Amino acid sequence: MLLITNVETYTPTPVGRPDILLAGGRIERIAAGQRLPEGGGERVDGSGLVAVPGFIDGHVHVTGGGGEGGYATRTPELMLSDAIAGGITTIVGCLGTDGVTRSPEGLLAKARGLADEGLSTFIYTGHYAVPVQTITGSIERDLLLIDKVIGVGEVALSDHRSTQPTFDEFARVAAEARRGGILSGKAGVVNVHMGDGPRGLSLLRRIVAETEIPITQFLPTHINRNATLFEDGIAWAKSGGLVDFTTSTVPAFLAEGEVKSSAGLKRMLDAGVSIARITFTSDGQGSLPDFDAQGRLRRLEVGRVTSLFAEVRDAVQHEGVALEVALQTITSNPARILKLKGKGQLAAGADADLVLLDATTLAIRGVIAGGTWLMRDGQAQKKGTFEA
Q: Do the strands 287-291 and 120-125 form a parallel or antiparallel pair, or are they unpaired?
C-alpha cells in the first residue's frame, strides 16, 4: 500500500488536498484522513506537488517508424525510459508508412514487452494502407480475438504516401471497425493519418453524410499539420467530430505553417470547440519527414513521447489554458474515446496510475504505474530490459 498526503490533486478536476490511498494496483480511496493499516504500506508527503492521472499517449510507433528515405531512415523502437520521462503510463502502439518490415505481429509483441516492463499497452491493427493488414485475417477478428487491439490505424488519407483508398474501401474499413468494436465492447475507432493534401477531411465527411457510420468512429490525427487542415479540423469538431493534435514537431515545420499544439488548443477552445472532442498524442518514434513539392525527402526527424506533456504544460504556462482543461487531452478524453477502463482519472477503483508534478514549475517529479514507482523525486526507478 502507498498513502500520499498533502498533495494538490486533479482528477483531472481539481479537488483540493485529499489523501490518496493506493492498494493492489488500484486507487483504494481519495479522501481526507486516510490511514495505512498496521504493519504495512508507505506514507509519502506530497507537499509542493500536484497529483494528476497518468498520461495516455494514444499514438506511438513503439516498434519504430519512418523509412521514407530508405532503410537507413527507419526510426528506432521506443525505450521504457522515454515513456517514464514523459509521465506516460498508458500507450497505444501503431504502425505507419511501413507495414512490410514493421508488422502487426511485431507491434503486438512489443506492446506485450512494454507491459511486462510496467506500462499499460494497447495497439491499433493495420498501418497506412488499405486493404488493412491484420493479424487474424480481418479487422473484426482482431478486435474480437486479440485483447490489446482496440481499433484500426493509422490509415492514411490526403497524403502522397497513402494507398489512395476509394470511398467504398474506406467506408468498409470504418464499418468493419464499428462492428468489431460493438461486438467486443471496445472503441473500434479508425485512427486516420491526415496528410497535407488539399482534400483534407472531405472523404470522412462524405462517409458520415452517405452512410450510417457516426462521426465519432473516426479519430483524425495530425490535425495541426498546416493552417488549412487546422481550420478544417475546427469545423469537423464543431459538427461533432473528434480531433487529435500531434505534439512532436521541429522548428522548420512550425515555420512552414504547422500549428503548435499548445497554441492550437487555445485557438480551438476560443473558436467554440468543446474540450471533450480534443486529444493530444506524441507520434513518438514516428518519423517527421519533410518533402519538397515533388515528394522528395529533404530531411527527417524523430517524434518524442516527451513532447506530449511538454505541450500540455506550454498550454497552461504560455497560452493561459487552465490545467484541469489542458490535462483532459492526455487523460480523461483519450480514456473515454478509446474506452480504456480504469484509465485517465483519479478515482476510487481506477488503476493506480499517477504523475506527480512540481507545483511551481509543473516539471514531472514522480510516475506511478499500477501502483509501482517508475520515477521518484525526478529519478527513474526502472529501465527497459536492454537499457544500460
A: unpaired
Beta carbons within 8 Å of 251's beta carbon, 6+ residues apart? none
DSSP, residue by residue, 29-87: EEETT--PPTT--EEEE-TTEEEEEPEEEEEE-TT--B-TT-GGGBPPPP-HHHHHHTT
CA-to-CA distance for 365 and 351, rounded, in angstroms?
19
Task: Please answer whether residues 194 and 200 qualify as being in contact, where contact means their C-beta atoms are separated by less than 8 angstroms.
Answer: yes
Domains of the chain: 2-52+344-380 (2.30.40.10), 54-337 (3.20.20.140)
C-beta of residue 143 within 8 angstroms of C-beta of residue 177: yes
Burial of 381 (0-12, 13-18, 19+ CB in 10 A): middle
The grid coordinates listed for 41 are 504500506
What residues act catalytically? Answer: 283
Question: 0.85 exceeded by the pTM?
Answer: yes
Provide the grid cell at 180. Answer: 468489431
Phi, psi at 216, each rounded to 5°: -75, 0
pLDDT tens-digit readout, 255-314? 889 999 999 999 999 999 999 999 999 999 998 877 777 777 777 889 999 999 999 999
Strand order in 218-221's β-sheet? 55-60, 88-93, 120-125, 149-157, 189-194, 218-221
How far is it, in rounded angstroms, from Cα 87 to Cα 355? Answer: 6
Angle at 22 (CA atoms; ends 17, 23), nearest 5 degrees: 160
